[in-house]
Design a protein that fits this description.
It is built from 13 helices and nine strands. The longest helix has 30 residues. 55% of the residues are buried.
Length: 384
């Protein structure tokens, strides 16, 4: 078996890392940027922290700030029009997964116009050219979209999330600056952080996992378990924020290359059909899905128990696996994640439609335990 690993060309880490941006632009010879962000980040001054650096360096740019929390096909098409109108030769993506996913869709189509309908990018698209160069600056510690070959767009016509997998979409540069995350509200910090934990755990146990991906995912789990409560409870604590910024990136390095599982498969339709924030959807499912997968993932759950510090000498494999599941469940409760679908406005009558999409989601086949539609229905009902 041949294993492939794809990463960014260059990444920068640490508080204040955004100040590296002018040097990057000069080194790569870029002329004008399309800044892809959202109105909230513009309003609350987070995007300004990056724009001030660009202004001081005299980097020309146009702004597209119409990114939606769950970006749509129309959203991406509008961004493509903005990019062409600006005459931009690179993209600066400032935001969470939504901004970076929108930027990826824009950049791929600008350089591969045969995919301009956007929906043809679903799954593994056979694009020929790399995206218009993207410099990604995450403002949340969760999606790791700045280092992944994946992006997710909602097809409004089907009310379905399209998971697009394309090595050509990876940003050429990631700048992971924890200072851009200090103003993130507690609820969003918790949701994005648990999204990162879901990435790490699913990436650890997915069918395609191997020694290199395991190394990254276990370190990410250890760091998220340690730093997420700090980031939630003390939002301006540099240790917590930077710890989470690095941890989510580490998780992304691995899951981008080995895939995910049924947790993400079930989370995607929750966002598409009920507009549930992606991190919340992943987090509310995680403890239940972990227990479902325990029969085939026990030995790796022992490793999770060890890095989380809940393993005790003399534990059986079953006891250690149960301790790992309980540790993640306790973390979810501690940071304030809802525990039931009804808390999110999802009712029993909604479950069949969710299951219809989840069973065919591109992430579901990566689950380590074979899953049926009935299994998915049962899992949804367990957390109703």
């Amino acid at each position: 078996m041949v294993n492939r690993f794809i990463l960014n060309e260059v990444s920068y880490f640490g508080p204040g890392a955004r100040k590296e941006l002018p040097g990057v632009v000069e080194r790569l010879g870029f002329k004008k940027a399309l800044v892809v962000t959202d109105k909230g980040l513009m309003k609350f001054g987070v995007a300004k922290m990056v724009l001030d650096v660009m202004d001081e360096a005299g980097i020309p740019y146009a702004i597209f700030d119409d990114v939606k929390p769950n970006p749509t096909v129309t959203n991406v098409k509008n961004g493509i029009d903005a990019c062409k109108a600006a005459g931009a030769d690179f993209i600066v993506a400032i935001g969470g997964g939504s901004a970076m996913d929108t930027a990826k869709g824009i950049g791929i189509v600008v350089n591969n116009p045969e995919f301009s309908d956007i929906v043809s990018l679903e799954g593994v698209a056979d694009t020929k050219k790399k995206t218009l160069p993207i410099i990604a600056l995450p403002t949340t510690a969760g999606t790791a979209a700045e280092t992944t070959i994946n992006y997710v767009i909602i097809d409004e016509s089907r009310q379905a999330k399209m998971v697009c997998v394309d090595p050509n979409d990876i940003p050429c540069v990631a700048i992971v600056d924890a200072e851009l995350m200090y103003s993130l509200p507690k609820g969003l910090t918790a949701a994005t952080g648990m999204d990162a934990m879901t990435h790490a755990i699913e990436g650890l146990i997915t069918k395609a996992a191997w020694e290199m991906s395991d190394m990254f995912e276990l370190k990410a789990i250890e760091m998220i378990y340690k730093y997420l409560p700090i980031a939630v409870e003390d939002p301006t604590n540099p240790e917590g924020r930077n710890g989470m910024a690095v941890a989510q990136y580490i998780a992304g390095m691995a899951f981008s290359n080995v895939g995910l599982g049924v947790d993400h498969g079930m989370a995607h339709p929750m966002s598409a059909l009920h507009d549930v924030p992606h991190g919340v959807a992943c987090a509310i499912l995680l403890p239940t899905v972990m227990r479902f997968n325990a029969p085939v993932a026990k030995t790796k759950y022992v490793d999770i128990a060890k890095v989380c510090g809940v393993y005790q000498d003399g534990m059986t494999v079953d006891e250690a696996a149960d301790a790992a599941c309980k540790a993640i469940e306790d973390l979810s409760r501690r940071v304030g994640i809802p525990q039931h679908l009804t808390d999110l406005g999802i009712q029993e009558k909604d479950i069949p439609a969710l299951a219809e999409q989840a069973i065919v989601d591109v992430c579901t086949p990566g689950n380590p335990r074979e899953v049926t539609k009935q299994d998915i229905l049962d899992l949804y009902h367990q957390i109703l």
